[in-house]
Amino acid sequence: MPAGSDSDSPEASPLTRVRSLLPSLAPAERRVAAAVLANPALAARSSISELAEAAATSETTIIRFCKSVGLRGYPELRIALAAAAARAEARDDRHLGSDITPSDDLSEVVGKVAFADARAVEETARQLDVGTLRRVVAAVAAAGRVDIYGVGANALVAADFQQKLHRIGRISFAWSDTHIMLTSAAVLSPGDVAIGLSHTGATADTVEALRVARGHGATTVALTSFPRSPIREVSDHLLTTVAPETTFRSGATASRIAQLTVIDCLFIGVAQRHQDSARRALKETYDAVGDHRLSEP
């Protein structure tokens, strides 16, 4: 199981926790989550019996739901939801935070996409466990080799991280083909690091690659939006993102921005550990491609 959180880790907002834990909730609790996410302000004003009726469940389920998302009981949930609704109203983000519809004009699309991406970065940074990040930085900085696994949109983030590490002289590889992921994992050893990127945390290829890497003694790291997903079981360290997706952005845009935020933090942390050599490598790699730039006006 992943290492525990440090005390200096920021606390995720209640709505963020509900979204991230949604797949792991029991069916009746998911109905409660859906009611809460659909209208946090209304849920905050509702009695426990009213919310139970709206979610077609019992008051006992409401209490179980509260405990599942890390709250002591329904009063604490109502207070947290009221605070979240007040923040949203203060930012006037109710329209921007809504789903993209076929009738939205392009200016509305731009506003909604920009808002979703900015919110993903903000909420990811707020809930990022700095203690876990610190341990991952230390592991990557000391690693003899870093292999990064991701398929689909996750592969783009994996390639970005590999390129960043390579530019500061760290031996790293990014893989997206299942067979190559598995064969690369099989030749890792203690002192190496394997990082799996999966927005859902349930990508079978990535989970299996981390399982194999861990079996050969490598330190395994997962980056996901769902902390109770299967990838947790094969990870020594778990880093989480916040990326609510909507109809036209499912799994590929806000989640990518959130992942890149964590990757950038991780990269800077590693570069700090090798400050002199990293600065030298960045200058040398910049100079190496200097002749391939067009002259500035």
From TrEMBL:
Residues 136-276 form the SIS domain. It comes from Actinacidiphila alni. SUPFAM superfamilies: Homeodomain-like, SIS domain. Transmembrane segments: none annotated. The lineage of its organism: Bacteria, Bacillati, Actinomycetota, Actinomycetes, Kitasatosporales. InterPro entries: Homeodomain-like_sf, HTH_RpiR, RpiR-like, RpiR-like_SIS, SIS_dom, SIS_dom_sf, WH-like_DNA-bd_sf. The keyword Transcription regulation applies. Keywords: DNA-binding, Transcription, Transcription regulation. This is Transcriptional regulator, RpiR family. It comes from the Bacteria. Residues 12-88 form the HTH rpiR-type domain. GO terms for biological process: carbohydrate derivative metabolic process. The keyword Lyase does not apply. GO terms for molecular function: carbohydrate derivative binding; DNA binding; DNA-binding transcription factor activity.
